[in-house]
Each structure stands twice: as C-alpha cells, then as structure tokens.
C-alpha cells in the first residue's frame, strides 16, 4: 500500500469518528466486565487467600481440578445440569417457534398486538414472582393443579419437593417465562421471508400448513440453527436464580446444578479456588460445544458463528 492509499484510508476512518466514539462505551464495558475478570481465573490454580490476594496466594497447579474430578458430588451435579438443559432444549425450544408461527398467522392487528404483549409479559417478572406463582398453582392443599387432579381421583402431589417432578417444574416455569420473549427472534425472521413465495404457494393451492412447512420453516432455518448453537454453548449454564428460587434440600439429588453447587461451595464454604475451577471447567466445555456446533452447522451447509 502506497502513501497515498494510506492517507486516503486514514481520512475515511477519521470521517466516521462519531461512530467510533459511540462504540467506545460498549468496548469499555466489554473490557472491564468480560476481559479483565479473566485474570481472576488464575485463582483456580492457587490456594487463594483473601488476605494475601491473587498474587500472594500459593500456586498449586491442578490440585483443585483433581479434587473436582474425584468428587462424587460433582458428577451428580454435572449430570443434573446436562439433563435439565437437555430437557429444556427438547421440550422448551420448539415452543417459541410454534408461538411465533401462531402469532404471525393472526390477521386482526389489535388482537395480534394484544397476544404479543401477553406472551412477552412473563419475561419481565422476576424469578421470585414466577416461583411464587408456581408455588400457588402447585400447592398440595389448594393449588389449582392438585384440585383438578383430585377431581379425577389422584391424591395431591408435592411437585416442588418431589424428585420425580422437580425437573419438569423447572422446564415448564422456564417455558412460561421465556417462550414469548424468545419468539421475537423468530417473528423477525418470519417477517424477512419473501411474501411472493406465499403468493405463489397460494396460487398452487397450498394450505396454510403446507406454506408453513415448505416456506416459513425453511426460511427461518438458519435462525433456528443459530439459536441451537447458542443453546448448546450454554448447555452447562442453568439459570441460577431460577433454581435457587425453586429448589430445596429435598430435591438436591435432581435439582442441584453447577451454578448452585458453586454458590454453596464458593460462598458457603469459602472454597474460592475450588469453585473457580468448577467455573473454568464449565467455560471450557461450553467453548468446546460451541466450536463443535459451529463445525457441524457448516458441514450441513448452514451459516456458522464465524
């Protein structure tokens, strides 16, 4: 590149300086809250002492990782985390897609906006409120679910403290809170599908279901694949606040996940190095899953993350 080209390129860059200035706050937040804390990951390889700090703490190498992999409790928590996320992926993931398809087919503008508002609303409720709603719905004494079960001769069930049903409660409550909000992405993708395709399909006599199956779903396939990749990358990350609000010692066997395990061990027992090792392991597995999902997506001809 000659001197003239360099000057021209610099001039073009400086002409958009307002855009770069707008970008600076976001970059600062990313640097401060995402990259600087990576330094703290070194705690996983040390016997961290609050008084001595990160630099003064003794280096112990892979000691905490060995303790982690030798712990039977860790494997139980690890399996719980995988199972709960797998259930959410299988049973909760399709709901926003179906909801978006249904909302898209509503032709009355006022009713359409009303339906969207109603489905988005639970997302703005905290898990404290959502857990209270489900505690009342599933109450073994006067909860509407157990009242209805009583009409068909089924004894009251303690859903919130029964290991057989606790994971289902987590999946259903998560679907209740997030499905409407998640459907926004799919609605936006549906809006981008060429309307002429639907007109051609109607001229050929295709029914609504066939239009959805052969036009809408293929049209948003890349978005669906992208969301699946993101969900796979978060396969070991449960909503900590949700589990904390719902679970109790009676369901630790099926409800204790990596997030709650780190919370109890790291803060409760002050084992900061050990809990950091758990988090670092979780991050490495998440990164591996994202890379694998990206490679599989590209292999089948879909757009990857990079």
Automatic annotation (TrEMBL):
Entry keyword set: Cell membrane, Membrane, Transmembrane, Transmembrane helix, Transport
Subcellular location(s) of the protein: Cell membrane
Pfam families: BPD_transp_1
Membrane topology annotation: Multi-pass membrane protein
CDD domains named in the record: TM_PBP2
Entries under InterPro entries matching the protein: MetI-like, MetI-like_sf, UgpAE/MalFG_permease
Record-annotated ABC transmembrane type-1 domain positions: 78-293
Transmembrane stretches, start-end: 20-45, 86-106, 118-138, 168-192, 212-232, 244-264, 276-296
Family as reported in the entry's similarity comment: Belongs to the binding-protein-dependent transport system permease family.
Lineage: Bacteria, Bacillati, Bacillota, Bacilli, Bacillales
Domain of life: Bacteria
Cited PROSITE patterns: ABC_TM1 (PS50928)
Species annotation: Paenibacillus chungangensis
Keyword Zinc-finger recorded: no
Name recorded for this polypeptide: ABC transporter permease
